[in-house]
Amino acid sequence: MLNSKRLISLCLVFVFLFTWVLFERNNYTIVNATPVEIIVDNTDAGFSTDGSTWAVHDVSTQKYGTNYLNDNNSAADPDKWAKWTPNISVAGYYDISMWWPAASDRPDAAPIEIAYSGGIDNSKTVNQKLNGGKWVYLGTFYLSQGTDNSVKLLATDAGKTVADAVKFESIETNQYYVAVTGDDTNGDGTEINPWKTISRAMQDVGAGDTLTIKEGTYREEVILGKSGVEGNPITIEAANGANVTISGADPVTGWTQHSGNIYKASIDLSAIGDSRQIFADGTMMLEARWPNDADGDMNTLTGNNVDSGTTTTLVSSTLTQPNGYWNGKTVWFAGGNVTFKCTICNNYQLFK
């Protein structure tokens, strides 16, 4: 109840919280490569060793090809290694996997060195006691064209190290498009038939893919919900030269003049809660309120002092509006170091 007298600040709030993100991308290059699979076996020209003797074996049914090599030493040997060097015809991201026949006398943490366009990765090891007779994934790396990339197996872990085959399989990357004129239902993400929203595109985008967003404002909540892999990221970018805005705001239409330079519009506030603001031409506007803001600075308080009050009422002689005028409105009260708000359920004029 408000006794037609005084309130610190009355606010009529009517819009959404805006979050503006603007980005521009001037140049980009997308390469869509046909998948390529390169297998280097221990009998192929791309395979080499340190030059010492490696025993040739063919007894295991888990071997790849006709045979495999064994360093024939149950102890760790810091000088022995085997290396697989592919001839990469098309630079790009490749899944790298290794094949070996497993046995109980194999090393359980044989170190791997992978040379790729970004340097050398020596964080991998393989357990050759397990997972024999199948491809074991080592990682995804960007490989340059030519023969500068390789996988080296070191015999520095105790056990008889086995060298068999390594596979390099290129990742087919996809190029997707989003446009404000697109269609989330009938679109397929191509440039001529793009999707309408970023959120729809993210349902299909995967590691190594590129999502290009065309000119315009996209009013949506974007939750990525997925990630690329090391060396094989998901790229989201604006189209060449395009200005793209991702906005958490919705346009408010139907404005009418209330009085003077005050305009009003009706919207449904039930879904947006208290966190709402209105922007005009990118500038945040002040909410309709009484008393009006004096200096345009939202960090300073503009209000009036109450004449008196209780825990449920405020009395202010400056309130001269008719009975019920403030019903349903919000009052902000600042007293000492405490600020709070409440909704007015009933107001009437105690004094005329």
Provide the residue-averaged pLDDT.
Answer: 81
Number of strands: 28
Strand content: 35-45%
Number of helices: 1
How would you describe the oligomerization state of the chains in this entry?
single chain
From the spread of the alpha carbons, the general shape counts as elongated
Q: Structural class of the secondary elements?
A: mainly beta
Task: Give Rg in angstroms.
Answer: 34 Å
Distance between the termini: 17 Å
- Biggest β-sheet: count, sense, barrel? 5 strands, antiparallel
Helix fraction, binned, reads under 10%
Q: What do we call the CATH topology of the largest domain? A: Jelly Rolls
What is the element string, with H for helices and E for strands? EEEEEEEEEEEEEEEHEEEEEEEEEEEEE
The poorly predicted ranges are 1-33, 348-352
Overall number of structural domains: 3
CATH architecture type of the largest domain = Sandwich
CATH superfamily of the largest domain: Galactose-binding domain-like
Under CATH at level 1, the class of the largest domain stands as Mainly Beta
What order do the strands of the largest sheet run in, or round the barrel if closed?
4-7-12-9-10
Write structural notes for this entry.
Helices cover 1% and strands 35% of the residues. It has 352 residues and is an all-beta fold. It folds into three domains: 1-14 and 268-352, no CATH class; 20-32 and 173-247, so0334 like fold (2-Layer Sandwich); 37-170, Galactose-binding domain-like (Jelly Rolls). The strands form nine sheets. A five-stranded antiparallel β-sheet has the order 4-7-12-9-10, with no helix packed on it. Strand 25 and strand 26 (314-315) form a beta hairpin.
